[in-house]
Amino acid sequence: MKAAAKKKAAETQLEVCKGSLGVVETREFTFAEGPDPLKLESGETLGPITLAYETYGQLNAEKSNAILVLHALSGDAHAAGILKEESTPGWWNAMIGPGKPFDTDKYFVICSNVIGGCKGSTGPSSLNPQTGKPYGTDFPFITIADMVAAQRHLIDFLGIERLLCVAGGSMGGMQVLQWVASYPERVRSAIPIATALKHSPQQIAFNEVIRQSIMGDPAWRGGHYYESGQPERGLAVARMIGHITFMSDQSMEEKFSRKLKKGKGHFSFNFDPDFEVEGYLHYRGASFVKRFDANSYLYITKALDYFDLSGEKLIGGHAIDTRFLVLSFQSDWLYPSYQSQEIVRLLKRKQIDATYCELKSTYGHDAFLVETEGQGTLVSHFLERTYTGAVNGNGNGGGNGKHR
Amino acid sequence: MKAAAKKKAAETQLEVCKGSLGVVETREFTFAEGPDPLKLESGETLGPITLAYETYGQLNAEKSNAILVLHALSGDAHAAGILKEESTPGWWNAMIGPGKPFDTDKYFVICSNVIGGCKGSTGPSSLNPQTGKPYGTDFPFITIADMVAAQRHLIDFLGIERLLCVAGGSMGGMQVLQWVASYPERVRSAIPIATALKHSPQQIAFNEVIRQSIMGDPAWRGGHYYESGQPERGLAVARMIGHITFMSDQSMEEKFSRKLKKGKGHFSFNFDPDFEVEGYLHYRGASFVKRFDANSYLYITKALDYFDLSGEKLIGGHAIDTRFLVLSFQSDWLYPSYQSQEIVRLLKRKQIDATYCELKSTYGHDAFLVETEGQGTLVSHFLERTYTGAVNGNGNGGGNGKHR
Question: With an 8 Å Cβ cutoff, are A137 and B271 in contact?
């Protein structure tokens, strides 16, 4: 592309994102190199480790305005703004930016990817330094606690002692809870959204079917398929299952009802997709195969299933002063509201400052990504109160009533 | 087996089924032979057609006590009692038998299999008379209306002009509704259970994922696998998906919670099943592969998705005097209660005699098979009132107040 055309493209991108962050950049941070790898929950070690991350806004002099935002299963570090030469804004663009709930005029927002993934961080598709080839299923098993332990290195590297807030939905919410469990003194406040202390058997069951679909595809080859190509059919079916669980009965009815695929006047009486909803799932499955690694899907779903901070595991005997805003959505049947309520009950028993809200929505689990208005208002007020230190009469979290 | 041992085995079987029907037999009825095949909704024809069926109890002289019971997706004609050399009773054994809700001391109960299936009736695994080989995907597409049209031939053959009742759950319930739509004058009463006038996009979506899982298995070979063997992996995953939808979040929690598989003291940190719920799904998947034909699963799920008796299609302009008992279950999220309520609303608009009850249960969609007590009481009273002709002051359905 010529310079003029490039400039024009960039301007168009900025136009799209008016009132937004504009063009952002994904960075990489590498640690656990050489003789000092990260010790994992499984007992194995991993290193070197690279984490992809993005930051938005400016860290203040007191380093008291840093917010860590964490993503869901197939998400990435690109939470807001747009990347050069791409046109889609980040996955939480409506929530993060100047004047938005995670207000980048006030706060320094970090979004970190996870280990085990395939979006710039070390995972099964990364090169195994021992062999010079992709790890495949030689990659060690990772847990949510391992993901968070890796992120802690990133936060150290950024020079942040205490995070004003850790926030995220779904698996991002699990990481939020794990941050509190692992490093309570480093988390001033926490916003776990549409998440759970532990997976129910139904959630485990869906994940196991997803895994079986991937591993049942002969193209998976025991996880060593990086030369021959992804197990596309199995991975597409796996993602189709996922998509059903992300939506709700009602949102599917509103979006698709029983409409036939475009151009179809009647049933095909063959095994091609007849209905629009089938076409949508096929499209989602096919596009996922292009953007996500099958082994990462396996490793991360297993980490989700192993996660369990129930009982005394979230908060042990020690007193913590982390404040919580817990959010769930009415039509979310993958992470139903009762699971958020279990988090709240546990916090209340420990006399921790926790606000809970079940938000109205028909969007199912996807609501945490799309219902940004109601969610945004609550987040914005909660951050404001935490930052100004008005709560509990102490200012250790923030800016003594001054906004900057 | 020697005669004495055989006799002993039979006695043991009868012992198991005390107060039950004892040993029953599956029969076959063949029609649409030669130049007069069945014309299908797709425009294609099928013949000869064999239907597997069972009967329990005695048809009375007036032929007014016949009840047709219809099964769900993977069910069969074996609804009650036990078959010789098998030990598992029929799928609705708790509902059908002497003194049971479908009381075989009073009623003549018929259970018919469906075309497209693989349980003794003509389906894709049957021999194609044109080639002498199994049809595979050369089998014509069938609809619920086609299944019912075939059953109508069986009812003719049994010499029954008017059925006292047609009853069934899930796909059985769809056949019930289709019987009313196709042959209203031949149905005195109808009991559709845990069913719908039409599949929602969510129901279609699950079925499409099931089909993609089967067809994505290279062993499916375009449906012509009868020499090489079933697409086992794909079919097992398909059935695992199905099983999740048959249960409820709560019933899975009660049955499995997060218990680890027997013998496991800790997580495996590999991709083997860790949790009991995973082991259960694997077991269900593996056993399904042994008993059900993959192509039948494809054809029948497509028939379910095409089914649509909404609007004027269930009952057109004509008056009908069929009585209805419509049942649904609280925790059934595959066929949620609102779908049964849509049936009832439609009936009420047409001023048809309809009773509706949503039964308490935590068993999800499986409830129609296992919650036989509450269901049974309602069915028993409904049949009694229909049979004695007490309702509407006419006795055309039954026995003038006398039980025989």
Answer: yes
Residues facing B339 on adjacent strands: none
Task: Tell me if chain A has a CB within 8 Å of the CB of B163.
Answer: no
Q: How far is B253 from chain A (nearest CA, A)?
A: 6
Q: What is the SS3 string spanning chain B?
A: CCHHHHHHHHHHHHHHCCCCCCEECCEEEEECCCCCCEECCCCCEECCEEEEEEEECCCCCCCCCEEEEECCCCCCCCCCCEECCCCCCCCCCCCEECCCCEECCCCEEEEECCCCCCCCCCCCCCEECCCCEECHHHCCCCCHHHHHHHHHHHHHHCCCCCECEEEEECHHHHHHHHHHHHCHHHECEEEEECCCCECCHHHHHHHHHHHHHHHCCHHHHHHCCCCCCCCHHHHHHHHHHHHHHHCCHHHHHHHCCCCECCCCCCCCCCCCCCEHHHHHHHHHHHHHHHHCCHHHHHHHHHHHHHCECCCCCCCCCCCCCCEEEEEEECCCCCCCHHHHHHHHHHHHHCCCCEEEEEECCCCHHHHHHHCHHHHHHHHHHHHHHHHCCCHHHCCCCCCCCCCC
Structure tokens at A294: 């099958």
Cβ contacts of A274 on chain B, cutoff 8 Å: 305-306
B293 is an active site residue: no
Based on the residue annotation, tell me whether B332 is a catalytic residue of this protein: yes
Cα–Cα distance for residue pair B1/A272, rounded to 1 Å: 49
The predicted model gives A228-246 an average pLDDT of: 98
Cis ω for the linkage preceding A48 (within 30 of 0) = yes
Contact B252 A198 (CB under 8 A): no
CATH of residue A122: 3.40.50.1820
CATH of the domain at B262: 1.10.1740.110
Closest partner residue to B271 (CB to CB) among A233, A298, A336 is: A298
Considering only CB atoms, which chain A residues are within 8 Å of B206? 244
Domain stop point among A248, A283, A303: A303
CA Rg, chain B, in Å? 21
DSSP conformational letter for A82: E
Q: How many domains does chain B have?
A: 2
Tokens of B5: 């041992």
In a domain, B313, yes or no: no
pLDDT in tens, chain B (404 residues): 455 555 555 545 544 445 589 999 999 999 999 889 999 999 999 999 999 999 999 999 999 999 999 999 999 999 999 999 888 899 999 999 999 999 999 999 999 999 999 999 999 999 999 999 999 999 999 999 999 999 999 999 999 999 999 999 999 999 999 999 999 999 999 999 999 999 999 999 999 999 999 999 999 999 999 999 999 999 999 999 999 999 999 999 999 999 999 989 999 999 999 999 999 999 999 999 999 999 999 999 999 999 999 999 999 878 899 999 999 999 999 999 999 999 999 999 999 999 999 999 999 999 999 999 999 999 999 999 999 984 444 444 433 333 33
> In terms of domains, do B57 and B164 share one?
yes
B381 as an active site residue: the answer is no
Q: Which domain holds residue A104?
A: 11-197+310-393
Q: What's the pLDDT tens digit per position in B200-220?
A: 999 999 999 999 999 999 999
* Full-model pTM: 0.93
Q: Which residues 180-199 of A are in CB contact (within 8 Å) with B?
A: 198-199
**How many other C-beta atoms lie within 10 A of the C-beta of residue A262?**
7
Q: Among B244, B273, B303, where does a domain finish? A: B303
* Chain B: residue whose CA lies nearest to A310: B258
State the burial class of residue B310 (Cβ atoms within 10 Å of its Cβ: 0-12, 13-18, 19+): middle
Chains A, B: CB contacts within 8 A come to 146
Q: Is B274 on the interface with A (CB under 8 A)?
A: yes
